[in-house]
Design goal:
The protein has 152 residues and is of the alpha+beta class. The protein is built from 3 helices and 5 strands.
């Protein structure tokens, strides 16, 4: 995917973020654990997880946060900055699940010289269950014509 610079003036309330799809598998879950030095057995050890009463290893909730950040940043472009991300995990995610990330712009504001965009986000699995809900992001966008301060 080629990232295109976007400006605050181009963002509209009600605009939907392009959906992002992620196929969840054990290899991806283990790679996340390795990258974050988070080797908790419930995220990769099937025998251990069954002994604990679960059907299968399940996704580390912070991995979903990483995907949410990717979703927003891919839409916002390389010159935007994700200022705030909040989310609640609601449904367990297992290997074999297919996740679809959704978002919509809910607000725009210029605050203290920063051009900020608010988005509501959510994630659904292949059954239509919302596995992450609610979720939100605040993104700082560049302005096409930034206000320049006087040198006096």
């Amino acid at each position: 995917m080629q990232l295109v610079a976007r400006y605050f003036e181009d963002v509209q309330i009600g605009e939907e973020l392009p959906v992002l799809h992620k196929d969840i598998n054990l290899a991806r879950m283990m790679a996340y654990g390795a990258a974050t030095w988070d080797f908790i057995r419930i995220h990769y050890d099937a025998d251990y997880v069954r002994e604990q009463g679960f059907d299968a290893p399940f996704v580390d909730g912070q991995m979903l946060g990483g995907y949410l950040a990717q979703h927003v940043q891919d839409w916002a472009g390389p010159d935007a900055f994700l200022r705030k991300l909040g989310f609640r995990n609601r449904v367990m995610v297992y290997p074999g699940d297919v996740l679809t990330f959704h978002g919509v712009v809910t607000g725009t504001d210029i605050d203290g010289g920063e051009a900020l965009v608010e988005c509501d986000l959510w994630v659904e699995n292949q059954k239509g269950d919302r596995v992450v809900n609610p979720a939100s992001a605040v993104v700082r966008f560049p302005l096409k014509n930034p206000v320049r301060k006087s040198g006096k």
